[in-house]
Amino acid sequence: MKIKPEEFKVLTQYIYKISGIFLDPSKAYLLETRLKSLLEQEKASSYLELYKKALADPTKRIEKAIIDAITTKETLFFRDQAPFDLLKFKILPDLIDRRSKTTSKHLPIKIRIWSAACSTGQEVYSIAIAIKETIPDLEKYNITILGTDISDEAIAKASYGKYNKFEIERGLPPDKLRKYFDPTPDGQWRIKDEIRFMANFRKINLMKPFSILGKFDIIFCRNVAIYFAPEDKKKLFERIAQVLQPDGYLIIGSTESLAGITDLFVPKRYLRAIFYQLKSFKG
Predict the structure, then answer these.
(1) Are 213 and 146 a contacting pair, CB within 8 Å?
(2) 114 beta partners
(3) Are the beta carbons of 220 and 251 closer than 8 angstroms?
(4) Which residues are in the CheR-type methyltransferase domain (predicted)?
(5) What is the tally of structural domains in the chain?
């Protein structure tokens, strides 16, 4: 079913309000593609009727279904290897070196990592595997990874940590598959508990305050701000600056830049990767 211009306007305003995702008129095809099955499921005769049903639904079930349908779940294990090399060979060693100087010898070194817009969890588990391979004596550390996403469906899948053959083959080398995943009776693969227990997941809308999450040493916020309007990008990264430790690290997408968005961060390069640190940090 073709979406009418007035329906597109109403729906995109609604989607922006509930998720912060900005869709320009060139994305009409995306709405048609993503919402087609939901239209049939809800027996809505038009996109406008689907919108009205969503507004009238006190359980917000339809609203959640629209978010699940619209949010991009394009993800894979070790997507763009550079950030994970950066984590293993630059960020973790530097952080551990600094933290060891300020942490009592009797206490584990604490490092908190946040994967914002983690989708179905591949980035979170890639981070966990990279840490496992970098730090052999993990029991001496207190390293936690938080994965957040706006989609209930994505968070549920990430929490369970089970992936089909297609998802596994996207970015995961065979040696890592055998080492960190167990086959399941239905022909899929589930992340081993030793990796799964390193991560927690929760639903978060990045357009709303998230200071309740506390402070983080490392934040991955890759390929999500590209769906936000310029003023919302600025607000997002200003809020991220508030939850980043003074000497923390921010990693964004390889094709993204904070130039012209905010001056709170300074870009730095390591090998093929760019990372950001707060301008106030003089390290």
Answers:
(1) yes
(2) 146, 219
(3) yes
(4) 1-283
(5) 2
pLDDT in tens, the chain (283 residues): 788 889 999 999 999 998 888 888 888 888 888 899 999 999 999 999 999 999 999 999 999 999 988 886 668 899 888 999 999 999 999 999 999 888 888 889 999 999 999 999 999 999 999 999 999 888 889 999 999 999 999 999 999 999 999 999 888 989 999 999 999 999 999 999 999 999 999 999 999 999 999 999 999 999 889 889 999 999 999 999 999 999 999 999 988 999 999 999 999 999 889 999 999 887 7
Provide the residue range defining the domain that includes 238: 81-278
Instruction: Please say whether the beta carbons of 189 and 180 come within 8 A.
Output: no
Whole-angstrom Cα distance, residue 250 to residue 53? 40
DSSP structure class, residue 27: G
* Both structure tokens of 93: 């060693």
Single pTM value for the model: 0.89
Instruction: Report yes or no: 176 and 185 within 8 Å, Cβ to Cβ.
Output: no
Indicate whether 150 belongs to any domain: yes
Estimate the share of the chain in helix, then strand, then coil, as percent rounded to the nearest 5: 50, 20, 35
